[in-house]
Specification:
With 113 residues, the protein is mainly alpha-helical. It has helices at 3-28, 35-58, 60-63, 66-87, 93-107. Helix 1 runs antiparallel to helix 2 and helix 1 runs antiparallel to helix 5 (93-107).
């Protein structure tokens, strides 16, 4: 596989992890959406994100970028915040704040195009 194909595959998976995180975020604030569905979306997002991390570190020479590391870190912060707030039955104010930070990083990265 040539490096450009690898980058395209990687970008696709980063986008998918973000879209699932976006769906988890939307669902957690939708009164009609059961919390279990939000957690299912988050689980999908985390699974996709783990695939991204595996590919990223296995192919670091081709894929290494500071913007992915910023995205990856913020993704983990968002996911942990959502899970903690569900577990402790707290408001999702910080879930929203951390998602907005994730969205900003994503929107300003090469992954969003």
């Amino acid at each position: 596989m040539n490096p450009l194909e690898l980058v395209d595959i990687f970008k696709k998976h980063v986008r998918l992890s973000f879209y699932d995180a976006r769906d988890a975020h939307a669902c957690i604030f939708d009164k009609k959406c059961p919390v279990e569905i939000a957690l299912a979306y988050l689980n999908k997002a985390i699974s996709e994100h783990c695939s991204c991390d595996s590919l990223y570190y296995a192919q670091y020479d081709s894929l290494g970028r500071d913007e992915y590391e910023a995205f990856s870190h913020q993704f983990d912060v968002f996911a942990n915040e959502l899970l903690t707030n569900v577990r402790k039955n707290r408001s999702h104010q910080w879930t929203d704040i951390e998602f907005q930070r994730l969205k900003e990083i994503y929107d300003n990265s090469v992954f969003s195009s």
